Every structure is written in C-alpha cells, then in structure tokens.
Amino acid sequence: MKMASLLPSVIFLLLCLLISNLETSVAQSAGVCYGRNGDNLPSEADVVALYKSRGITRMRIYDPNPATLEALRGSNIELIVDIFKGDLQSLNDAGKATEWVQNNIRAFPDVNFRYIAVGNEVQPNDTEAQFVLPAMRNIQNALSFLAENGSPLLANIYPYFAYVDDPAHQIPLPYALFTSPGVVVHDPVSNLDYQNLFDAMLDTLYSALEKASAPDLKIVVSESGWPSEGGDGASVENAGTYYRNLISHVKGGSPKRKEGPIETYLFAMFDENKKEGNPVEQHFGLFSPNQQPKYQLNFS
Length: 300
Hints:
Layout: E1 11-13, E2 17-18, E3 30-34, H1 44-53, E4 58-61, H2 66-72, E5 78-82, H3 94-106, E6 113-117, H4 129-142, E7 153-156, H5 159-165, H6 173-176, E8 185-187, E9 192-194, H7 197-211, E10 219-224, H8 236-249, E11 264-266
Parallel strand pairs: 3-4, 3-11, 4-5, 5-6, 7-10, 10-11
Antiparallel strand pairs: 1-7, 2-6, 8-9
Helix pairs in contact: 3-4
C-alpha cells in the first residue's frame, strides 16, 4: 500500500503558549484528557485524586473550569488548559486577554500549567478561524513571563477514525492497533517503514512542517483514543489493546523522529454520556463514571 492512501486528515490545535520548561521524561510521556460532558461524573476533587492514585501526571482540560483548577492546586499534575472556542473573538481585545490570564492562570499560582491551547477543533472555514491568531498574540502579550520560543504544535491523532472512515478498507485493524507483526507501509519518498498507523499520521505532520520551513517545531499529540462501543471496530478488547500499546509506544519516537518520548494525551478519562454526534463519542473513557477502570493500564 502507498503511504498516502492511509493518511486521513488530522485536526490541528493551534498553540503558541508554552508555560513551563519541564522536560518530558520517559515515565511521563502519556497524560489523559479530562472531559466533562456527562451528568454522572465524579467531583473534580475525586477526579484529581483518581489521577494521582493511578500515577497519571498530565491532564488536559477543555476550559478553565474553576472547580477543576481549585482541585488541582498543589497536585503537581501538569496541565494543558484550552481556551473555549466561543471565547476567541472576545480575546482579540488585549484587555480581555489580560483579564482571562489574570482570572484563569495567575489566580492559580499553585497549579502546574504546562500549555495554553488555542483553536481546538477550529476548522479553516469556521467563523472562529479569523480570531485564533489575534487571540494567541494577546494571550502571549498578557503572559510576559513566558518563554518566547519552544512552544509546540498540538494535534489530535486518531487511528480509529482513519480505520473506520477508510472508504477503500485498505487499513488493516492490526496496523491501527499497534499489533502488526511487521512493516505494513513503506514510504518511498522518505524510505521509511511503518508498522503502525499512529506513527504514519504523526510523521505526515512532521513532513508537512518541513515543507512549511518549520522542521524543528515539536508536535504534542493532544488527543488519541479508541472507543469501547458504539461503532465499527469499537470494543473493550480493541480499546484496551490500543491504549496499552499507545502508552508503551510513545515512550520512544517515530521513524522520522526517532528521539522520544512522544508527549501524548489519551482521550479520555471518562465515558461522557452527554457528548453529541457519533455514538462512539460517548465511549472513549479509560474509566466508567463510577471511577472503575475499563482496562488494566500502567502509566508508570
């Protein structure tokens, strides 16, 4: 198979704000996204306690929810916090951006912020797209203590959706689950071999950055997951296989970027019964809402 035939689109998260200069260790290559689209989820304090008890040292949240930030105080969990899509237009005003930083970042000095993510799920043709870069600049200016360089690009990488959306059915399930016994795809341009789809998708982004004259820009995988039910290929067995292999795999690098680890955030902490759209969207959790694990995973 040609590599290009197996590479679906990936949602980019535009990011310019690196808050901490923490080094990525092998033991901390995988974090978990914490979504709150459910009416039966544990309290924020219980969620933070669950992260700590399971040795999960990195979290991503999709808005600066005050209760979550309060629960994170003193926890030392490294945090990605998203700017809500609906707030982008208001943050084109420098005063509003300063207020956002004051209320959501500086007000929590004992929360271990790692990145601020701007532009989650904003497509090029969306109305909000025009507001992303100005909002980023204003937040950057409001955070004068930040390093000016070294911020990564965030990308959501989902081999599951590539697998189920492949109209030609060319993508083998083992290739998507990290279980292929050998090389599946050879890229004749780079002369690199690929044994799993995750690496192929990630390296395609790196190739695009090279063509855009940004070869040194780091990519953080801000979401990746597999559902346990609700659609083709969605099962507890497949999801458990994917998550276990992903946690292990990202401790190393990809064929194009062999130096690892690959900072990656598993989606998501809980099944979220209020998520809309495709039925699988409600079944990406590592845990049920009662905090019972769906899979045996080791983050250490």
